[in-house]
Specification:
Layout lengths: L2 H18 L22 H16 L4 E5 L1 H4 L13 H8 L4 E5 L5 H9 L11 E5 L12 H18 L4 E5 L8 H17 L7 E4 L6 E2 L2 E2 L20 H19 L5
Parallel strand pairs: 1-2, 1-3, 3-4, 4-5
Antiparallel strand pairs: 6-7
Helix pairs in contact: 5-6, 6-7
């Protein structure tokens, strides 16, 4: 038998085995944005979470600000004017039984963990949740807009499932000056929110407050506090003045939901 005649049967057997082998579909890639991810191994985060749990257990709240460092910044007191946020918070929310559930560095997956582990354990249903989240999805966890969007919808639907009578105000992700990829995904995510998130959710409100950090339709470095830091960081967080503009822009909606006077 020649070498070529020996090879032909082997090729036939190999082909037959390949055709008869079961087809295995590639595993679907998990979407981290809709998972629940804890940061309890980070000491400051752990302590803040415990403090906020005690605050929830011991108080009654009508307004819940929920988000990341932009929300957490409401607790800052100067001394520089660009990071003196607390007086603005006091003006708009001091008499409204409000709680600040902002955590620096959180993305949608961390908020989902918090909601599942005590941040919905209010003694009575709040009247309004104000949600600003998504900026960090584009940062260190590097999740794009298409994957971030279902993370946001899962957050709002989780809130609604627990508190059907509570209104939810979603603020679009603020523009920043970090990278072209982040800017493109911010625009894409905000477009998805505008097109879809209010469908079948009559209890949900959506506002675009990006102009608070813009000039002539583009992000304005002077409206961000990050360039003031030492060393400076890429512009992401509004100054206290810009955040005051955000509070002013959402105030008609907030007042209407709460049924009180405009502050």
């Amino acid at each position: 038998m020649t070498r070529s005649t020996r090879i032909r049967p082997l090729l036939a057997i190999t082909t037959l085995l390949a055709l008869s082998a079961p087809t295995i579909a590639p595993a679907a890639t998990a979407n981290l944005a809709v998972e629940q991810v804890s940061r309890m191994d980070t000491p400051w985060w752990h302590h803040r979470f415990a403090d906020k749990q005690a605050e929830i257990a011991n108080g009654q709240f009508d307004v819940v600000w929920l988000g990341d460092s932009i929300t957490q910044n409401w607790e800052r007191n100067g001394p520089e004017p660009w990071r003196d946020f607390a007086p603005v918070w006091q003006h708009y929310y001091g008499d409204r039984h409000a709680i600040n559930l902002g955590f620096k560095g959180d993305s949608t997956c961390h908020v989902l963990w918090r909601l599942a582990h005590g941040e919905l354990d209010f003694r009575k249903p709040p009247r309004l949740f104000i949600l600003m989240i998504g900026a960090n999805n584009f940062g260190h966890v590097h999740i794009d807009a298409a994957h971030t969007y279902p993370g946001i919808t899962r957050i709002v639907d989780t809130i609604h499932a627990r508190f059907p009578t509570t209104q939810v105000l979603v603020l679009k992700v603020l523009p920043s000056i970090r990278s072209p990829w982040i800017s493109a995904n911010t625009r894409q995510l905000n477009g998805m929110l505008e097109t879809d998130i209010r469908q079948s959710r009559p209890w949900l409100h959506l506002l675009d407050v990006g102009s608070a950090v813009e000039a002539n339709g583009a992000p304005d470095r002077s409206r961000f506090l990050d360039p003031h830091l030492t060393p400076p960081d890429p512009p992401l967080h509004p100054t206290a003045a810009a955040q005051q503009d955000i509070a002013r822009m959402i105030e008609p909606t907030v007042a209407a939901i709460l049924g009180d006077h405009r502050h």
